[in-house]
Design goal:
The chain has 140 residues and is of the alpha+beta class. It has one helix and four strands. The protein has a domain of 64 residues. Helix content is 10%, strand content 19%.
Amino acid sequence: MPEYRLGDDIDDYCVRCKRLTNHLVVSVMYAEPAKVRCRTCHSDHDYRREQPPPPKVDLRKAALFNEVLKKVDPEAPPVVVPPVEPVVELVVEPVVEEPPAPTPKAKPKPKPKPKPKPKPKPKAQVKPKPKPKTKGKART
């Protein structure tokens, strides 16, 4: 049994991708991976030892169906739900020889310049009326 360390690459069944993919070891417990992170979809989940989860077959539906069949035809054989075998796909990643040439980007249209705000007109100034001169004696 190999000794696992954090960050090691291992294969495991991803519940989100629903296939066997590469994973990174996120946590180790008792020298065995406890949690792993899928390198395809980046989801974290428990280490499943490359086993897909069991199919969710509702056995109550089969039991009710058999009960109805017995009422209709008592001699009919009961319906048995066959176990579904998990389908494991091999994932082959294509080898990329050269990066694709960058496509020329369209130049963005220049933004229209904002119109300058008109300057407010100066208010007319009111001149104070001069005081009338009084004719008379000057004070000494």
